[in-house]
Amino acid sequence: MTDRLAGIHALITGAASGIGAASARRLAREGARLLLADVNGDGAKALADELGQASVQADVTRSADIERMLDHAYQLWGRLDVLLDVTEAEWDRMLAINLRAVFFVLQGAAKRMRQQPPIAASELRGKLIQTASIAAYRGGNANMAHYAASKAGVVSITRSAAQALAAHRITSNCVCPGAVDTPMWKKIDAEWGALEGWQSGEAWKRRTAIIPLGRPETADDVAGLVSFLASRDSDYMTGQALNIDGGLVMGN
Length: 252
Prior knowledge:
alpha/beta; 7 strands; seven-stranded parallel sheet; 2 domains
C-alpha cells in the first residue's frame, strides 16, 4: 500500500465488477477512502468488505438513488474529492446508463463539490472521471451504433463539464478503453457472434487480434490511468479524453 491518494475520498459507480472493481482495488491500495456503488448492491458490499471500505446500492438511472448515493458519501466524509463514473450494463439500458446517468451523476456531484473547500494539498475542489470508449472515435458496426453514440456523448459531456466547472476548481476528464476483458465484453461477443453466425469467442478473438501491443486489455490496465487522474499529479489536466487501448486508436 502507498499513500499516493491519502486524503482522497472517492465515489465509484459501477464498482461491483470489471473496470470499477479494478479501480477500487487500485485506489484503495494507494490510500484513498472509497464508497462503492452499484445496482448490484451485494456485489458492491462484498468488494467493500474485502477492501475495508463502504458501499451503497444505487441504480444511477434513478434521480432518487443518485441523491441517496451522494448523501451517503457526504454523511461518511463531509466531502467528495473524486467521482469515478463507470458504466457496464445491458444493451436495452444503453443510452440511459451510458449517457443520461453519467450526466445526472456528474451534475449532482458537481453541485456539492462546488460548495466544499479544496482537496488537501491541492488547488482543486473535486475531480470528475468518466468512462467513455475508443468507440467514441472509431464508431462501430450497425449493431453497436447506439453504444458508440453514447460514448461519444460521454466525451462531449466531459468536455462541457470541464469548461463549465473550471472556474469552480473542479476538473473533468474521461478514460477511453479499448477491448477490455470484462463481463460486458462476454455479452458483446455472444450478441455480435449470434448476428454474424460466429462461434462463441470469435468476435472477441477478431477484436483483440489487431491490438498493436499484442494482448487484450485488462481492467487493471485502466485502473492505473484512473489512479493517475484521481491523484494530485493530474491537477492541471481537464477536458481530456485519454485513450488506453494498447494502440487500437492512435490519436483522437
